[in-house]
């Protein structure tokens, strides 16, 4: 009977398109290309190891008008705005992908790129949270940005920064950012414990802020309403943040929060047919089901069983075997909406993949209205969606740019559609970009490798046209869930139980760089407070830091990470989110020292660590 059911599921595609011949996909190649897309979306000072060479530095004054450093982070899609809610969700899902499938990513050689992609996001989110009850949730605004068609390097549009605080709350934004930092702290726990602790501290503060001062963020940051309206409200983000804080900290408080608020905040009541940057319930329910299968629910077991029931309703709806099923196109793609439908495809595929592995580890099957479903069947669903995305569809089109032979060439994306500033630095004006580049009926001059576009309509139709933003615009949150699925399909199932705590493997270092712990045996860093003073009621502290080359060779290419710095620094040059030698020296001979100083408002030194260096 199982074989018959599967045959019936596949037969509409075969009957409608009898000449389709599908080949196996290189999931490892698709995984590698996904991370290149994130490098193309970077804002701020680009690092020396930037692989997407057609991009340049941009948004270098972000936050300056508000007296805060908001340089960095990601542009969300084809525009040049930094929207906090989808960016935080992107970081959460990238982190979840690594937490579940970091071993497979390590074996494919992509773990280092995955961690770099997360850190580019979390470094920005830390900047955006300068005080416990203040969070900046947007830089730029969609209205002025969409009026122009410019490369990020040429932006003349508003770079105003918008924040939430106790008088202008945003529990959904603060909750998602707390979830992102908590999830990312798990990723960094083994290879950068100080950074992980910093992330977790911010996550605690943001959850307390979100829960205490409740409100929808788009009622406070109203410029976001037209682009990222919080339709679901903030209840799902409160539960989502609590789930991730429990997973990151193992503190009973957050498990109790899930148990005691599941009904009031909708976690045990809503059966969802979507999961994404706005609606988190299916994600909460999947995590809660995992906690239950791990035996961690304790006195809240009855509540967590309700979470699991709703999680399984979602899985069954994806399979078409529930009481309320998700629509599928004739070619078999789940379809939710016309505008960027692919975001729901990748997120549903991720939940199906992890839940399949949870069930397999627990020795259980999925309970659907039409009968039990084995874990492999659930994974097969996820694979079918990924295969469709990569080209197994009626149009034989890959919806990942640069993968396969037939993929979108006129992507709705400012940076990729305009000649690189490195090829032609001539300024592209606000409206001139539309006339010269947007309306061009030609392929993009820059390949946006790895980008997942919005995808086809409900009938598998797709028009590769730059002005067709519903189908040809990519987004960071399209890729984030997919990287986990690709790693799983490429690397196979782990030999360990997916219900046991997993240690993230150490990323493989760049062979040309010596990655050093802090303090490194070759390098000594000594800090001391030299003076302090009070100005307008605030105390300032001056610190001196001495970096000494203790090796017998010349120290070159030094990169320092400086965190928990609440002021200005002199004596080093800023390079991206790191610090390097000042302009007047390019190396440090054996036994020699370099001094830099900083002044800030904390009565404790900044955290200074060695990121990388070479010895010559």
Automatic annotation (TrEMBL):
Keywords: Carbohydrate metabolism, Cellulose degradation, Glycoprotein, Glycosidase, Hydrolase, Polysaccharide degradation, Secreted, Signal. It comes from Solanum pinnatisectum. It is found in: Secreted. It comes from the Eukaryota. InterPro entries: 6-hairpin_glycosidase_sf (IPR008928), 6hp_glycosidase-like_sf (IPR012341), CBM_49 (IPR019028), Glyco_hydro_9 (IPR001701), Glyco_hydro_9_Asp/Glu_AS (IPR033126), Glyco_hydro_9_His_AS (IPR018221). It holds the Pfam family CBM49. The active site is at 412, 464, 473. The keyword Transcription does not apply. Its main location: secreted. Its EC number is 3.2.1.4. It catalyses: Endohydrolysis of (1->4)-beta-D-glucosidic linkages in cellulose, lichenin and cereal beta-D-glucans. Residues 1-23 form the signal peptide. GO terms for cellular component: extracellular region. This is Endoglucanase. SUPFAM superfamilies: Six-hairpin glycosidases. Residues 523-603 form the Carbohydrate binding domain. Belongs to the glycosyl hydrolase 9 (cellulase E) family. The keyword Cytoplasm does not apply. GO terms for molecular function: carbohydrate binding; cellulase activity. GO terms for biological process: cellulose catabolic process.
């Amino acid at each position: 009977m199982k074989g018959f059911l599967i045959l019936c599921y596949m037969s509409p595609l075969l009957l409608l398109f009898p000449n389709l011949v599908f080949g196996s996909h290189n999931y490892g190649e698709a995984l590698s290309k996904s991370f290149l897309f994130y490098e193309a979306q970077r804002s701020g000072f680009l690092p020396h190891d930037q692989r997407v060479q057609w991009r340049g530095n941009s948004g270098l004054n972000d936050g300056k008008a508000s007296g805060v450093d908001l340089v960095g982070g990601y542009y969300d899609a084809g525009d040049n705005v930094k929207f906090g809610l989808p960016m935080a969700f992107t970081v959460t899902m990238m982190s979840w992908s690594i937490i579940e499938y970091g071993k497979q990513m390590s074996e494919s050689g992509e773990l280092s790129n995955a961690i770099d992609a997360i850190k580019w996001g979390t470094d920005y989110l830390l900047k955006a949270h300068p005080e416990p009850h203040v969070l900046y949730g947007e830089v730029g605004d969609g209205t002025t940005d969409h009026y122009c068609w410019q490369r990020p390097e040429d932006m003349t549009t508003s770079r105003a920064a918008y924040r939430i605080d106790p008088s202008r709350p945003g529990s959904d934004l603060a909750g998602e950012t707390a979830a992102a930092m908590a999830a990312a702290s798990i990723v960094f726990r083994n290879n950068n414990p100080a950074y992980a602790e910093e992330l977790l501290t911010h996550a605690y503060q943001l959850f307390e802020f979100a829960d205490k001062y409740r409100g929808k963020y788009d009622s406070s940051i109203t410029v976001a309403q037209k682009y990222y309206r919080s339709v679901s409200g903030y209840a799902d983000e409160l539960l989502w943040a609590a789930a991730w804080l429990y997973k990151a900290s193992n503190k009973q408080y957050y498990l109790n929060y899930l148990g005691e608020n599941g009904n009031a905040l909708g976690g045990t009541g809503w059966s969802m047919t979507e999961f994404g940057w706005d609606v988190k319930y299916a994600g909460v329910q999947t995590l809660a089901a995992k906690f239950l299968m791990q035996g961690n629910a304790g006195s809240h077991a009855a509540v967590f069983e309700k979470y699991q029931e709703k999680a399984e309703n979602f899985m069954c709806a994806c399979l078409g075997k529930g009481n309320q099923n998700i629509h599928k196109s004739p070619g078999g793609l789940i379809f939710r909406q016309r505008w960027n439908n692919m975001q729901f495809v990748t997120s549903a595929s991720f939940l199906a993949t992890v839940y399949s592995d949870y069930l397999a580890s627990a020795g259980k099957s999925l309970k659907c209205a039409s009968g039990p479903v084995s874990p492999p069947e659930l994974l097969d669903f996820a694979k079918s969606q990924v295969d469709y995305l990569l080209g197994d569809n009626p149009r034989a089109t890959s919806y990942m740019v640069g993968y396969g032979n037939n993929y979108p060439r006129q992507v709705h994306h400012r940076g990729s559609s305009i000649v690189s500033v490195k090829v032609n630095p001539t300024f592209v004006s606000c409206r001139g970009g539309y006339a010269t580049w947007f309306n061009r009926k030609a392929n993009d001059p820059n390949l946006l490798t790895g980008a997942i576009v919005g995808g086809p309509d409900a009938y598998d139709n797709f028009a590769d046209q730059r002005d067709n933003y519903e189908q040809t615009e990519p987004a960071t949150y399209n890729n984030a869930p997919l990287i986990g699925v690709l790693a799983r399909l490429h690397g196979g199932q782990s030999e360990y139980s997916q219900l046991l705590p997993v240690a993230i493997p150490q990323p493989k270092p760049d062979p040309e760089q010596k990655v050093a712990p802090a303090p490194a045996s070759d390098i000594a860093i000594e800090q001391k407070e030299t003076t302090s003073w009070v100005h307008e009621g605030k105390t300032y502290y001056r610190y001196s830091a001495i970096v000494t080359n203790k090796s017998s060779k010349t120290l070159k290419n030094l990169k320092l990470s400086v965190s928990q710095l609440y002021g200005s620094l002199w004596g080093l040059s800023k390079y991206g989110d790191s610090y390097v030698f000042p302009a007047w020296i390019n190396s440090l001979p054996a036994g020699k020292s370099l001094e830099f100083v900083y002044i800030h408002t904390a009565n404790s030194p900044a955290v200074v660590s060695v990121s990388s260096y070479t010895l010559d």
